[in-house]
Backbone:
């Protein structure tokens, strides 16, 4: 496990610890605010008091946890940049062995190999043309980036949806409390406790889900952007190797486009 992976694991652990601490504090605060009789002692008690809005918040928490684990696996530097393939690709491209380079790409599917493989596939038995390869890689990179960013899009959706469900629970809880006040329950706090509890608990749990998910979202987005820049550097270096091989073999070369992926 390299240093960056350790930092990612530490970051995820810190987020989970923060979430657990917030839950514990919310439980302690709610317990202190209620009477000894009928007080809420367990997470299930809070769930019941929170009402129907706790169900979508619970789904958001499960979805966020699953996406965090998935992104941590998919956005690792080794998985995205595939450094183990670079020496093999350089050797094949320096000898203008496009077929072998394509075989290397096909043997280990990933973002780097998929992008480079799409460019090499455009040759189709023709002499290597750097501009054509780069154009094909640029098109493939758009597809790869869009597909790879879908989990982050869903995680971003959860960071926005969870507080909204909490706010919905707050509104419904306050509506219930005011209805009971209108029916003459102003002098009986026990009649208002469940509705006020629903208003507070759903907001708290919505934020408990959204805040760690938001930090994870920006952390993974930064990691993805960094790895994408590394892939761009690797592919540019590989195209330079291919161009050098072509010049050495005496092939006429179309100038490179210089466009980044």
Residues:
């Amino acid at each position: 496990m390299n240093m960056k992976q350790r930092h990612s694991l530490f970051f995820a652990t810190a987020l989970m610890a923060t979430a657990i601490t917030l839950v514990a504090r919310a439980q302690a605060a709610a317990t202190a605010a209620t009477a000894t009789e009928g007080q809420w002692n367990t997470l299930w008690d809070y769930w019941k008091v929170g009402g129907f809005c706790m169900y979508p918040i619970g789904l958001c928490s499960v979805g966020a946890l699953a996406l965090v684990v998935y992104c941590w696996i998919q956005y690792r530097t080794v998985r995205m940049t595939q450094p183990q393939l670079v020496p093999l690709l350089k050797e094949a491209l320096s000898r203008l062995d496009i077929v072998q380079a394509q075989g290397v790409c096909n043997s280990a599917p990933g973002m780097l190999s998929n992008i480079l493989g799409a460019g090499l596939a455009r040759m189709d038995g023709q002499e290597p043309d750097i501009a054509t390869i780069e154009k094909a890689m640029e098109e493939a990179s758009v597809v790869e980036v869009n597909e790879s960013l879908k989990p982050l899009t869903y995680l971003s959706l959860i960071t926005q949806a969870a507080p909204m469900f909490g706010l919905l629970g707050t509104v419904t809880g306050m509506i219930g409390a005011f209805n009971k006040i209108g029916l003459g329950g102003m002098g009986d706090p026990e009649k208002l406790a469940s509705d006020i509890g629903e208003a507070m608990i759903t907001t708290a749990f919505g934020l408990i889900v959204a805040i760690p998910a938001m930090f994870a979202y920006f952390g993974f987005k930064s990691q993805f952007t960094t790895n994408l820049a590394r892939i761009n550097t690797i592919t540019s270096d590989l195209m330079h190797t291919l161009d050098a091989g072509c010049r050495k073999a005496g092939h006429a070369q179309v100038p490179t486009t210089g466009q980044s992926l």
In short: The longest helix spans residues 189-249. Residues 78-147+234-244 form one domain.
